[in-house]
Amino acid sequence: MNRKQKMIKKTAKRAKARLNKHTAPTIKKYVSKAERAEQQAKLEAEAAEQATAAVETTDAATDAPVEASEEKAVPAN
Predict the structure, then answer these.
(1) Rounded (10°) CA dihedral 8, 14, 20, 23
(2) For 22-43, what is the HEC assignment?
């Protein structure tokens, strides 16, 4: 191989190496039972929070018209 061919070969190898760089996985492969239980508890707590927030907003929305109708009913009597 002559000098120019060697340079081309090295350049190609470097380019290929750049494409094939290994990146460490970001996802943990093993999750212990304790960690899994902790994550599940967090998810359930968030779901319960959202459910109570949704219930509170629907209660507030239904309570407001009831109070207004009661006010209208009082002067009519």
Answers:
(1) -170
(2) CCCCCCCCCCCHHHHHHHHHHH
The pair of structure tokens assigned to 6 is 């060697």
Question: Cα-Cα-Cα-Cα dihedral of 40, 41, 43, 46, to 10°?
Answer: 180
Q: CA distances (Å), 44 to each of 26, 39, 50, 51, in order? A: 25, 9, 10, 10
All residue ranges of the chain with pLDDT < 70 are 60-77
CB 45 within 8 A of CB 38: no
CB neighbour list of residue 31: distance below 8 Å, 6 or more residues apart: 39
